[in-house]
Structure formats: C-alpha cells, structure tokens
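quick one before i forget lol
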Amino acid sequence: MPQDDARQAADTRARHLAKEHGLGATGQYPYGKRRPDDEGELKTALALVNDRIEWHFGKSVTWLSLPVAEARQLAQMLLALCDQAEGGAP
C-alpha cells in the first residue's frame, strides 16, 4: 500500500520535527485567551517535501486564530515555499 507507506513516512517526519524543534503548545497566550477553548500559542513549522507544503503543529489542532499582520506573514511564507517548489527563488 503506497499511500500507507507515504502516510507513515509523513507521520514519522512530523513526530521528528515536533521533538527536534519543540513544536506544539508553548503555554503562552500572547494575545490573551481568545475563546473558552483557546489552548494558547503554538510553535509550528512549514516544510517543503517534494511537491507539497507540510504544516506541522506538534499536536492536534481544531482551530487557529492569527492577527492580520501574522496572517499576511504566513501567506508570504507559503507563497515563498510555492515559488521554491516551482523552481523559483529559495
């Protein structure tokens, strides 16, 4: 099952990234608690893997809230990874 192998490889990579880079909950609320179910800030990582962009959270995530300026910064990072994947500037 090639899909199962790819999924297992992705899960292994995600666990490695989470451990190596301390991904997941930080225990901080830099913008205050936004909702009753807010679990606080997350340290995440974006990775270009073959022709896919992977976003690693280090934990299960139900929802995400970003200030507009950070959402724009995320959009720029995603576009830069898309350019890199398509052979553009790194």
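fyi The longest strand covers residues 45-49.
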